[in-house]
Amino acid sequence: LKLKPQKCHLMRKTVRFLGHVLSENGISTDEEKIRAVKEWPTPCCPSEVRQFLGLASYYRRFIKNFSMVSAPLNALL
Predict the structure, then answer these.
(1) Structurally, how many domains does the chain consist of?
(2) Of 11, 40, 45, 75, which residue is the least packed, with the fewest Cβ within 10 Å?
(3) Which of 16, 11, 66, 9 is nearest to 54 (CA)?
(4) Is residue 1 part of a domain?
């Protein structure tokens, strides 16, 4: 196992990891990634709808009733 010193961040209160923010309060969403979901252009074909659903479903644990919210988009596929 090799570590790169420039990639090691020790003694931090919060850490960004795979689109999430880990802190002493638990796991939350990375605002930068949420902005990407909010600013996603309107899909115009089934493959773009699928791409958006894939991105949005990564954060499904933070979205109450995600399956009900995303059902209309899934119906388009």
Answers:
(1) 1
(2) 11
(3) 66
(4) no
Residue 76 domain-assigned? Answer: yes
Alpha-carbon distance of 52 to 73, in angstroms, equals 9
- Decide if 64 is inside a domain: yes
- Domain membership flag for residue 43: yes
Between CA 43 and CA 52 the distance in angstroms is 8
- Domain boundaries, position 60: 31-77
**Half-sphere exposure of residue 45, counting CA atoms within 13 Å on the CB side?**
1
Reported pTM: 0.72
pLDDT, tens digit only, all 77 positions of the chain: 898 998 888 889 999 988 899 999 999 999 988 898 899 999 999 999 999 999 999 999 999 999 999 999 999 99
**The token pair that represents 43 in the structure block:** 């899909």
User: What's the one-letter identity of residue 55?
Assistant: L
